[in-house]
Amino acid sequence: AQSVAQPEDQVNVAEGNPLTVKCTYSVSGNPYLFWYVQYPNRGLQFLLKYITGDNLVKGSYGFEAEFNKSQTSFHLKKPSALVSDSALYFCAVREGGNYQLIWGAGTKLIIKP
Amino acid sequence: EAGVTQFPSHSVIEKGQTVTLRCDPISGHDNLYWYRRVMGKEIKFLLHFVKESKQDESGMPNNRFLAERTGGTYSTLKVQPAELEDSGVYFCASSQVPSNTEAFFGQGTRLTVV
């Protein structure tokens, strides 16, 4: 069965430090991987995706994610965190050809000044 | 270009009542999805429309939930009668045809059943 795991409920990072939000997945076919962010009182906003090609994908607001097939991971990263990055981050996977998104439980990212 | 819009943003109803949620997708997006997030848990798929047809409704919890998409434009999700466990945030999303495209989400409807 398809699944996504975000092992950390919450990640705390000091402003200016690098941040990583972890995501691992399980699918039987080729994965399409996505990161979404939800700011307070807002909807889910697309950040970036991996479909094929370069394992390092760059997205909005300076975020990037690295697809690692052997570790079945798709961790979200940013070199220097901003207080405004504080939000709820969701990792999702779609098996190639399928439209349904399978979601992780979300990770609350808190950036402290 | 307008994004995905959902109405209402919040709804508080009593157990046994009926509630109808509405979603207006991005114009030209044939795919429309409903998802639900209950009490801080993971987001769960409910169903998927392609134009006016239900492509996949495997995530619908039970027959108290009815989704429609008249004319392939906006969609409604009706819960009748509502139960306490139906409380949560209901998200609608839309996307273009290829499955490798990202979905665009509305702000969600927070439903509280008391």
Provide a short characterization of the protein structure:
With about 110 residues, chain A is mostly beta strands. Helix content of chain A is about 0%, strand content about 55%.
What does this structure look like?
The complex is a heterodimer of chains A (113) and B (114). Chain A is mainly beta and 113 residues long. Helix content of chain A is 0%, strand content 53%. Chain A has no helices and 12 strands. With 114 residues, chain B is mainly β. Chain B is 0% helix and 49% strand. Chain B contains no helices and 11 strands. In chain B, the strands form 2 sheets. In chain B, strands 2, 4, 5, 6, 9, 10 and 11 form a 7-stranded mixed beta sheet that branches. A 4-stranded antiparallel beta sheet of chain B has the order 1-3-8-7, with no helix packed on it. Chain B is globular. The relative contact order of chain B is 0.33. The chains are: A mainly beta (113), B mainly beta (114). At the A-B interface, strand 5, strand 6, strand 10 and strand 11 of A face strand 4, strand 5, strand 9 and strand 10 of B.
- Can you write the helix and strand succession of chain A as a string? EEEEEEEEEEEE
Portion in helices of chain A: under 10%
Oligomer: heterodimer
Radius of gyration of chain A: 13 Å
Q: Provide the β-strand percentage band of chain B.
A: over 45%
Assign the structural class of chain B, choosing from mainly alpha, mainly beta, alpha/beta, alpha+beta, or little secondary structure: mainly beta
Q: What series of H and E elements makes up the topology of chain B?
A: EEEEEEEEEEE
Spans where pLDDT lies below 50 across 5 or more residues of chain B: none
Instruction: Supply the number of helical segments of chain B.
Output: 0
Helix content of chain B: under 10%
- Class from secondary-structure proportions of chain A: mainly beta
Overall strand count of chain B: 11
Largest sheet of chain B: 7 strands, mixed
Largest interface, C-beta within 8 A: A-B, 26 and 29 residues
Distinct helical segment count of chain A: 0
- How many whole angstroms does the radius of gyration of chain B measure? 13 Å
